[in-house]
Every structure is written in structure tokens, then in C-alpha cells.
């Protein structure tokens, strides 16, 4: 809980999007490495005496692919763990603020999109965002203080 308060609440909630973006980039890199491994073929037969190193290039691409795939799996586990943690924090709020922060930080809608979904103006959305973040910050701060007093 203390870790949450060390960073800005908005930054804390934004971790879902950040990890999701990392996963997207890792998937793109995996696709790139897959393409290298598939497009790089080793010479078979005795006609080509001189090798261009394609066997090593393919082996390197496959090793890189396997390593990155392991990292991707770990990042996906981190994503779902962080997502559950953040949703639990958001669920501490009243319905209106909980729903708003869920739409923005879990579902990934922009403030403008949330305003449109609620038939409101953009100004309403920025106001609601500020109020919801402040209420969550206070709840987390209170929980942190309660935990400190118990120890």
C-alpha cells in the first residue's frame, strides 16, 4: 500500500497501460524474430561450399525468439497481476467514481470517450477524473495510516 502512495495515483493506475504497451512491443519483436528465423534458410548440399553464416543467424534468431517469448509470458503474468491489484483499489470507491476510473484505466477509454459515453461534456470528464483520483488517493492514504497504526 505504501508503494502506491509513493507514486502519483494517476501514475499508479496508468501502469496497466504501460505494461500492455510493453507486451505489444514484445509481440512485435517476436514477430520480427520469427520472420528472421523463417526467412533465413541454411544451405543444404555440397553445391555451396562457402557459407554466409545463415545457420548461425537462424540459430541466433531462434534463441532470441525463445528468450523473448519467456520474457513475454512473464510480462503477461505481471500484467494480469497488476490489473487485478489496480481493479481491487478502484473497487474501494463509490459506484460513480469506480465506474469512471475503470473505464479510463482498465478499459483504456480516453476522457473524451468517457464523456461521450455518458452524454457529458469533456469538462465533466476532466472534473470527474480529478475527483475520482483524489478520492482514491485519500482512501489509500487512510488505509496506509491504519496499517501503520496496527504495527
Tell me what the structure shows.
The protein has 151 residues and is an all-alpha fold. It contains seven helices and no strands.
> Which shape, going by the Cα principal axes?
elongated
Computed over alpha carbons, the radius of gyration is 24 Å
Based on secondary structure, the structural category is mainly alpha
First-to-last CA distance: 14 Å
Count of DSSP H/I helices: 7
Main sheet overview: none
The run of helices and strands is HHHHHHH
Helix % is over 70%
Q: Would you count the extended β strands for me? A: 0
Low-confidence stretches: none
Arithmetic mean pLDDT:
85
Strand content: under 5%
Question: Any key phrases for this structure?
Answer:
mainly alpha, 79% helix, elongated, 151 residues
Compile the SSE list and pairings:
Elements: H1 2-6, H2 9-13, H3 15-39, H4 54-90, H5 95-106, H6 111-117, H7 122-150
What is this structure, in a nutshell?
This protein has 151 residues and is mainly alpha-helical. Helices cover 79% and strands 0% of the residues.
